[in-house]
């Protein structure tokens, strides 16, 4: 599974990164799966214009906000099948 | 309003798992029953809000003049009562408006706004972009991806600028605070002139044909297409609650500061203290206010205590509003962010056109003496 946090370094981007790591760990997976992406070309390649954004296995799950850990865990669980 | 979030996390997860198709393309999810439940909850909440709001004035009087037995005619008594009335009033307005605006914003994503603006002719496009700037969620840290996303999708440069000016300048927090502290006329005036500047400056910038001063790599970026699910009503209401928590959490110290300054002025400061050098007669006060405003960086909430102090001591409305707009719309950190996509010359023209718009508004208000008509 590939989990990306897209952001250009704002406070909320860091917050989303931490929340996502916690949610992934809670789901019994390795928090090291979560990677930060700050490259503007890659952010836009996902069609994201509002950071921070969460992308799981290439699918944009949220933009411009920090969803709560339960929601992220649900997405992660769904992707893990 | 905690009853609105009465579903368990388990239900939430089941719902999310079941709704993974994402094929309803922008349609509102949620059955009639959920909408009725949220609608009912909101109505009850609104009724309680209105009741509480009406009680504020008598409650503040009772607290100041009966419980604390202050003299209604004294400076201290009038300052305390002003504070006890104004602080909860502005907080309540803030909660209501921020909640409502954030729910409205869940219907306007940047993607949708971009689609509405792409290929629009100028003029119509500028007006639309100015209006969409108010309702589309925006954070200046996302200015670069937004700019690239708009420009590569065929939104004209001037129209993109109208959006980029309107989004931070005309924001709900500024409007609510102006409404709470100076009355709805000042708030409406701010909204209208902020929009006019965004539309006018964007139009002028579009006419100048500055496309070649955009960094060339911008046009080479391939912008993908995010397929986001439309949020459910629960998520929309959740967004409203989050925004209220965030905004009130960030804004309250400025707000209390502003109201305290207002209360002191209300009770103690002689009127017209600043009138001689920031009044309507001093022609140089408007450009000075704009010049001072550029290096300063604050959000709308942080500006309110300053504007309150300026107006309360006799500064002209045009001067005070020009200062506030210059601080919010023209900021060095945002220029640094935008420098990634705009060449220095375009950046300078952008700043110059917006500053001119603010100058015109400031002078116009002072010359026509709008302040006398709208500030009670």
Written overview of the protein:
The complex is a heterodimer of chains A (81) and B (376). Chain A has 81 residues and is α+β, with helices and mostly antiparallel strands. Chain A has helices spanning 11-26, 40-45, 69-80; strands spanning 3-6, 34-37, 53-56, 59-63. Chain A is built from 3 helices and 4 strands. A 4-stranded mixed sheet of chain A has the order 2-1-3-4. Chain B is mainly alpha-helical and 376 residues long. Chain B has a domain at 110-224 and 264-374. Chain B contains 18 helices and no strands. Mean pLDDT of chain B is 82; it is low at 1-29. Classes of the chains: A alpha+beta (81), B mainly alpha (376). At the A-B interface, helix 2, strand 4 and helix 3 of A face helix 1, helix 4 and helix 6 of B.
Total count of strands of chain B? 0
Derived structural class of chain B: mainly alpha
Largest interface: A-B, 29 and 32 residues
Q: Name the shape of chain B in a single word.
A: flat
Query: In CATH terms, what is the fold-level topology of chain A?
Result: Glutaredoxin
Count helical runs of chain A: 3
Average predicted local confidence, pLDDT of chain A? 90
* Structural classification of chain A: alpha+beta
List keywords for this structure.
heterodimer, A: 81 residues, 21% strand, B: 376 residues, mainly alpha, flat
Summarize the structure.
The complex is a heterodimer of chains A (81) and B (376). Chain A has 81 residues and is of the alpha+beta class. Helix content of chain A is 42%, strand content 21%.
């Amino acid at each position: 599974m590939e989990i990306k946090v897209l952001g250009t370094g704002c406070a909320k981007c860091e917050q989303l990164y931490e929340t996502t790591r916690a949610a992934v760990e809670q789901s019994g997976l390795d928090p090291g799966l979560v990677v930060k992406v700050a490259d503007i070309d890659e952010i836009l390649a996902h069609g994201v214009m509002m950071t921070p954004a969460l992308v799981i296995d290439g699918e944009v799950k949220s933009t411009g906000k920090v969803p709560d850990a339960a929601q992220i865990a649900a997405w992660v669980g769904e992707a893990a099948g | 309003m905690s009853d609105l979030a009465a579903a368990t996390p388990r239900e939430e997860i089941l719902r999310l798992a079941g709704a993974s198709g994402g094929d309803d393309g922008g349609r509102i999810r949620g059955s009639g029953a959920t909408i009725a439940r949220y609608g009912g909850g909101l109505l009850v909440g609104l009724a309680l809000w209105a009741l509480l709001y009406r009680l504020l004035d008598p409650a503040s009087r009772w607290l100041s003049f009966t419980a604390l037995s202050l003299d209604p005619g004294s400076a201290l008594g009038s300052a305390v009562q002003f504070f006890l009335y104004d602080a909860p009033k502005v907080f309540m307005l803030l909660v209501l408006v921020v909640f409502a605006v954030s729910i409205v914003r869940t219907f306007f994503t940047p993607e949708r706004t971009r689609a509405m603006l792409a290929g629009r002719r100028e003029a119509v496009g500028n007006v639309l972009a100015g209006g969409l700037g108010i309702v589309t969620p925006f954070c200046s840290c996302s200015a670069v991806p937004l700019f690239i996303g708009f420009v590569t999708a065929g939104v004209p440069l001037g129209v993109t600028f109208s959006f980029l000016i309107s989004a931070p300048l005309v924001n709900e927090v500024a409007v609510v605070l102006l409404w709470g502290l100076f009355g709805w006329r000042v708030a409406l005036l701010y909204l209208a002139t902020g929009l006019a500047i965004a539309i006018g400056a964007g139009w002028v910038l579009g006419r100048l044909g500055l496309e070649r001063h955009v960094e060339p790599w911008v046009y080479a970026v391939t912008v993908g297409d995010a397929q986001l699910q439309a949020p459910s009503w629960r998520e929309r209401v959740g967004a409203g609650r989050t925004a209220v928590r965030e905004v009130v959490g960030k804004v309250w110290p400025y707000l209390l500061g502003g109201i305290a300054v207002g209360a002191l002025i209300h009770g103690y400061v002689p009127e017209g203290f600043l009138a001689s050098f920031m009044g309507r007669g001093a022609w140089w006060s408007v450009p000075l206010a704009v010049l001072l405003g550029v290096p300063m960086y604050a959000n709308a909430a942080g500006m309110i205590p300053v504007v309150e102090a300026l107006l309360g001591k006799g500064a002209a409305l045009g001067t005070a509003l020009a200062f506030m707009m210059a601080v919010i719309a023209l900021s060095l950190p945002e220029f640094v962010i935008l420098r990634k996509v705009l060449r220095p010359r375009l950046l300078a023209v952008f700043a110059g056109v917006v500053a001119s718009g603010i100058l015109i508004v400031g002078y116009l208000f002072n010359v026509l003496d709008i302040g006398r008509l709208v500030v009670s």
